[in-house]
Amino acid sequence: MPLGKGLFIAGSDTGVGKTMVSAGLTAALRQRGLDAGYLKPVGTEAQCVDGRPVNPDAVFVGRMAELPEPAWRLNPFCLSAPLSPLAAARREGVTLDFGQIVAACRQALDEREFCVIEGAGGVMVPLCEGKLMLDLMAELALPVLVVGRPGLGTINHTLLTMLAARSRGLAVVGFVFSGGGEGVELDPSRHANPALTEEFGGAPYLGALPDMGGGEISPRALRAAAGAWLDIDGLLAALNRATNQG
């Protein structure tokens, strides 16, 4: 299964469900026998876990995908303020080193057969001095899976995210929607959004995870949901194509 070394999960915005998708994909790939890992290289909104600052997303994915690493290994750089990484770092008077962030990503990619790397916020979020999240994506040169909301406005945000990734030579292997929150079932746009985004984005629609209830879900339930609602086979085929073309 020559998939390459990993996949970058990019959000069309913050809070769109990247973490739930990352957890579901990592768990589903591990269930298929792939030595899949996960990394959120930089996070904010830190909580203290075993005496270290860790983003809650990394704690969640570690639990859902039943990963053996301690939470801090899944999120090596974390800041306290609920801001973009650069804004949080400036508030705390610390400097995030781009080279160290890239090195942490490459180490995670080397340690596993395959690694799911989750960004923070959207692709144009300021990451560190002079660098956006998109710069990290370009440096790693991994295939990109875009995660967006299912409702009104998602076409614009998802297409812009694809455009930004492709502007740096990155392969967009597909897009998925996640959650949507209260009222999404009443949003008439959600029925047309997948097909229109696929039509204008030139990347396959690979499914949509429903609202899973966050911390109340079990690893088993999330694995089942990922298998039922996401096109894992389609993603694997797209990753193979991207690897062969690269």
From TrEMBL:
- Which EC numbers does the record give? 6.3.3.3
CDD domains (UniProt xref): DTBS (cd03109)
**Magnesium listed as a keyword:** yes
Annotated residues for binding of ATP: 57, 118-121
Tell whether Magnesium is among the UniProt keywords: yes
**HAMAP family reported in the protein's UniProt record:** BioD
Q: What is this protein called?
A: ATP-dependent dethiobiotin synthetase BioD
Q: Which organism is it from?
A: Desulfarculus baarsii (strain ATCC 33931 / DSM 2075 / LMG 7858 / VKM B-1802 / 2st14)
Name of the gene? bioD
